[in-house]
Amino acid sequence: MSTINGKLLFRYPKVTDGANIWNLVKKSGKLDVNSPYFYLTMCHWFSKSSMIVEHIEENCLVGAVIGFMQPQKQEKLFIWQIAIEDEYRGKGIALQLLDELARQTNCHYIEATIAPSNASSKRLFEKLASNNEVAIVKREGFETEFFPNEAHEKEDLYIIGPLRK
């Protein structure tokens, strides 16, 4: 756990945070909304590779990042989703969440899939690489035809690292 300016608390999620994360993702209007059960399981079994940030004084969820350490590549943290409440966007909180989670997991690489139209996520991960003075590599991820009814934009794989210790 860590605080910034005494107002924001960065911590691992608990299962009781799952519903709030689901609501945050749903409100974003930009992310794929998974089932509420998904967020409960991620908060329960993958809490050490996920993180939330709360506003202490207002007692509210500000943002969340859901990730997991890859079973065959334990040095790689895959970021599933990251979301920040509208009123807190543009303040560097998403970058702080990623930095704190990378530090806590002690990962060497961060990976994420990003749709070509998702300019804000691309900027976020490019800034993460730049701030850490590491490479960012873009590779083929999931093509449109892999999705049911081809109802999803393709996702490119971004690899950031190796991160410094």
Which key phrases capture this entry?
single chain; 165 residues; alpha+beta; Aminopeptidase; eight-stranded mixed β-sheet; 8 strands
Major sheet attributes: 8 strands, mixed
> Number of helical runs?
4
Helical content class: 25-40%
What is the CATH class name?
Alpha Beta
Strand order of the largest sheet: 1-2-3-4-5-6-8-7
Give the amount of beta strand, in percent: 25-35%
Number of domains: 1
> Which consecutive residue ranges, at least 5 long each, have pLDDT under 50?
none
Mean pLDDT: 92
Describe this structure in words.
- The chain has 165 residues and is α+β, with helices and mostly antiparallel strands.
- The protein has one domain: Aminopeptidase.
- The protein has four helices and eight strands; from the N terminus they run E-E-H-H-E-E-E-H-E-H-E-E.
- It has helices at residues 18-28, 36-45, 93-105, 119-131; strands at 2-4, 8-11, 51-55, 60-70, 73-84, 109-114, 135-142, 155-161.
- The chain has an eight-stranded mixed beta sheet with strand order 1-2-3-4-5-6-8-7, sandwiched between helices.
- Helix 3 (93-105) packs across helix 4.
- The longest helix has 13 residues, at 93-105.
- The protein is globular, with a radius of gyration of 15 Å.
